[in-house]
Amino acid sequence: MVGAPIAPHPAAIAPKETFVLNLGPQHPATHGVLRIKMTMDGEYVDRAEPVCGYIHRMHEKMGENRTYAQFLPNTGRIDYLSAMHYTHAFVSVVERAAGIQVPPRAEFIRVITSELNRISSHLVWWGAFLLDLGGFTPLLYAFEDRERILDLLEGITGARLTYCYYRFGGLCNDVDDTFLEGTRQFIAKMRPRLKMYRALVTDNIILRKRLIGIGPISAELCRRYGATGPVLRGSGVTYDVRKAEPYSVYPELEFDVPTFPEGDSMARYLVRMEELAQSLRIIEQALGKLPSGPVMAEKVPRVLKLPAGDFCFAVEAARGRFMVRVVSDNKEVPYRVKLRTPCLSNLSLFEEASRGLFLADALALLGSLDLVIPDIDR
Amino acid sequence: MNALNEIYSGFNSLLVGLRITLGQFFKPGVTVHYPRQTLKIPRRYRGHIELVANPETGKPLCFACKLCERACPSDCISLEGVKLEGDKRKTVASYQLDFTKCSLCGSCVEVCRDGAIRFSRDYNLAGVAKEAFCMDLVQRLREQLAAATPEAPSPKRQAQPEIPHPRFSPALARARNDAPPAAVPGPAATVAAARMTPAFGAGSMDALLPRLGPPATGRAALPDAHCVGAKQGEGSIP
Amino acid sequence: MNALASNAAAFLDAEPWRLLVWLAALLGFVALNAAYLVWVERKSAGRFQRRPGPTEVGPAGLLQPVADGLKLMAKQLVVPAGADSALFRAAPLMVIAPVLMGLAVIPFGRGLAALDLNVGLLMIFALGSINVMAIMLGAWASRNKYSLMAAGRMVSQNIAYEIPMLLVVTTMAMVTGTLDLNQIVAQQAGAFWHWNLFRLWVNPLMPVTFLIYYACMLAETNRAPFDMAEAESELVAGAYTEYAGMGFGVFFMAEYANIVLGCSLATVLFLGGWHSPFGLLPGLAWFLLKMYFLVFSVIWVRWTFPRTQFYVLLNLSWKILIPVSLLTLILSAAIIKIPKALS
To answer: Which comes out higher in pLDDT, residue A107 or C189?
Structure first.
């Protein structure tokens, strides 16, 4: 009959022809050695299967063969961009288990250095993310700022990336006035730079088109995969370990936890940019409240033996919740060291979140998750 | 009209971005053109470790207690001490650092009770063979002392304000931070002569020590043990 | 001596020889530009990023393009197994040839045009579409499905941006009343307010027209922020995957030559060609100054903005640029024709 809809002939419906595209372990983008097997339906991602393990270095196994003090350098190398946080977690779990009291000056300095490390980690993320999206210049602007942080931390710890600065009971050495003055100047210089980043990148229409509405992740998806950190906060859930399970001297400092409800890549981006400002705020307060005194607890046994049992400690690392669990059987060497890293959980939701996205959008989503692959593989 | 607004503000954001990068174009560069220019290395820079000499006697402070060797997570340090006649404690005879395994954690420096080792500020390390990074620290100390004369102290050691260390006495802290001993006791000698003669002061142990070879552990050399005399263990610790 | 010189001049003024000399000069110009625009780009990128850029090879890195060129020439020209050898080798040549021919009609100065065609504008666009076909042919001849897909994307991008570009150029042809580039430049004689960019009484949306032309030029030459065909398929590699050595070098040269052609055309159409903005000493120098200023702005835009997505690029063209350029066309047509019809 004329006008009735005609069902298409079966031969006219094209079958879905997919091909496998390998985002191989070697990446143009600076994520690390992660392989993603993408099954593509033309331009759309049909299925993205991450294959990790290319940089598995057996940190947890090394934890079973080293004394607590000997494991300290390992902690800085799990997620090398936010090494201070990871060392903080390990040092704190041992202090918690052994009942060691950390002097307040050491706690404040730990907070200051951890927040500086958070800023430098977010700057690397920002630069690398924009590099993925095709803007080459902001990477170098970010690294200029990061250089100042690295110089400050090099002045007190001697290292620029893998600090190994904290010890059981405090710090390995005290900070000097150069560091304190330098940090104040850094804060003063960084605030206008954040405004520049906003004007150059965040408000840029091309970037906004690239990120707004792209790669939506719901709070439910985060909950199912255990995603934490800016990924969770960009989906509307205000969960920050510094507020939920306060540690160190964070309860004495005032700061906000930036949360954006939209759940798209732009929300995750804005969470991290806001966290930069909040970290500056924390550092400023901590500098003001820094007490004098020793930086090392008094009676710390040279060789630590934790009492038998199960101990854990969680921190808010730059990428999410990092937790260390130590099982001890009253020996010098732990029985088991378990490292719960944020990036593995954050990556695992990529498979579900990237279905049906354009390839460029899937890459923007991957970048907005802020993955450091050694953190996934440990 | 929302669309027009979006186009207008979008275009404006592009112009703002262009202005920012043009502003950066006219600012001076922030990079340092290495190796034509170099940066000053901070005082606490963590280079590989080196031995510290006693300012009065010129001998290394290390008495081979081997705490550093045990503390090292990566099995980099292997040292031997020898007890000389009339000394209460041992003196270090050989101190080998396998820098290819060192992670610069600082455990050795931390655990050393008398401040006998410290971080050097050597950063410009390049070599063509792994063996170049098997460092003989006793030899290094000898060379450093020989290069520092009363008239020309070593350029690497600049007098700097000290920072109280939680564990060491000020006198020993000074030994770690300041110029190496200005006066090498013994017969006055030129620098060249000092290089030829053992520089640890009167009664140098060189004449007294036998040449030490690889430790007789009885284990076959592992394929990656490229340092003669280096520890040939599996890398696992106590 | 003088007789010899004037004989030589008369000989070279004769038609086939004059054109050949011009083509040789243009070839040299394009080659020099392709080489040294890379230097300018790298140095500018460095300055935007607060770093020096190439400094080692030659003073201030000036011999860097020579080193790069030598490196490319030293590489083996590999033709993939099973590839269509003739088309594979022909594709780079087909990409660079139309650009050279397009440059032949551009008036660089008073009387300095290789070809004095009365349909010069038409010629540039007639030839300009050839390089799109050539890229497609090269990618197809490479026998690599990824380069074919990337080339397909490039082609759809180029087609999408041909349309607003042609509409803009038609607008300019209507505004100036001629397709002859020499005449277009002649109409803009005088100080800068005579330039077509400021001819607002004929086309009130002239700055918008210029911006549309500029955006289309960026998209046609595959420059950021519209360079996803070469950069995003960095996962795979672009349409030029299988080209090695100088084959790739020629594609690269063609890209810079296209930028030079696009900027030259913009200078001629909008910025007064070889006329000086203050009315004194017009000539080749002013043309080159304006053209290189536009080239610098292309570099500036590249190092400032991230890439757009592919569908945003196409949406921009089909949903924004085409309607707006149609609007300017109709507006200019109305302003030109209606008063005449009324009187």
So the answer is: A107
